[in-house]
Amino acid sequence: MSKKYKLKIRNREVPKKINADLKSRMEKIIIIDFGSQVTKLIARRIRELKVYSEILTLKDLKNLKSFDTIKGIILSGGPSTVTKKSYAKIPREIFLKNIPILGICYGLQLLAKEFGGVIDSIKSNREFGRATLFKRKNSLLIKNYINSKNKTVWMSHQDAVIRLPKGFKIIASTKESKLTIIENIDKKIYGVQFHPEVTHTDNGSKIFSNFVFLICKIKDKWQIDSEKKRLINEVKSKVKNDKVICALSGGVDSSVVALLINKAIKKKLVCIMVNTGLMRKNEFKFTYKIFKKKYKLNVKLINASKLYFRKLKNISDPEKKRKIIGELFIRIFEKEAKKDKGIKYLAQGTLYPDIIESRSATGSRSSKIKSHHNVGGLPKKMNLKLVEPLKEFFKDEVRTLGKSLSLVDSIKNRHPFPGPGLAIRIIGKVTPEKVKILQEADDIFIKELIKHKLYDKIWQAYVALLPMRTVGVMGDSRTYEYTCLLRSVISDDGMTADYFNFSKSFLDEISNKIVNGVPGINRVVYDITSKPPSTIELE
To answer: Which of 155, 181, 215 is the last residue of a domain?
Structure first.
């Protein structure tokens, strides 16, 4: 091969085509998070187009050293308002980089404000819910989006742009919002007042597709199953000759991490299953057999249930529960690591949503949703370094990775289960008695879902124990027992969700089986709240 067609990278010669493929894979769209509860959906919509996307906070943006691989920037919605003297904004130099920018909701208002437009809070301009969008001018952003029929879009704003910035044009409007889509072709800046990322907007993905492919001119090269090799190599590069202990719970996330790291370092991996006393019924026995016998992993069991119950005694606040569990989680693994001086790393199944929900987008306390035990719940000082190969991925992407690693369907397709376990499904104080009651009720519910072939139709289902006892009558005698809540949702990615619509006959049957089969429960209720406004878990 002639020198003309070779490039040197770290003393290794690679063909230009391979180098181009590597560069293309690294090209990405970044989303600047201004605190919207659906920012993660923007990242999902971009990744569905086979383009890598990443969510950054304003702090992340300021610390960004290079923009070389960034082909487009999306500004999310958020609770801030540009009508105040102080508001969240991006550095002005970003606009000089000639990178296409798309603002959504607050992002649109911010762009309009930065370029001299006028924004105001006017009651007559408030729009919450569905609105009809009609075209004013042609634009690449709405190419093949608004044709003969107008589109239904989802609005959620009380501020509105009332005067267009100089150099911008109106592309589309709604009845209440004249400046619903605007653009400045010369500056490559676009803005939409509605939320194309939510399913309530008709074919909102087309807006993202046009922005990514027609305006940013990025190629659809990114695929989750092709990431396996990269992740394995990254683990090898990071860990080198050190050993790793992996927190293996038996859920899809930790299982995929264990199999990935095993392929990277094999004999230098020690998987530890900690019995916190807060897992589902028979969880450990089932998982241990699979990973020990089928995958031949080095798995060690630790029973720490008494320790967890002691530390959680009289704790009702959900954030305190998460912090306590996160602290114990790390300390147990540090103790195990001391038994082998070669262990320097702790591997966790942390996902992208865990990280986003556990941090504040704008620095305000209000934009942080909750502390995940393996992110915001971790102690500040740790003796182990973290290995989190899945921290860039969403749940459905992890399932795809699991399939490429030959993970058994019984684990790969398992419903999500929270790291803190049943502690956050017992509202209020956690006791061994309550855990036992909840385990039995949850076991009945899940088995009935499988029996009726409903399990795979549902994103997540579980039973929670409410912090109250109610009066009942059983066998002509008065009872005073707990109420349990059934939660079952459908979702594409867990970012938004709606409750599953069970038949009356199924609800009758499951209520009867739980009340008759679980001493301690005499009432069953079903949660019919969507996300938002609620979250999927109760705590």
So the answer is: 215
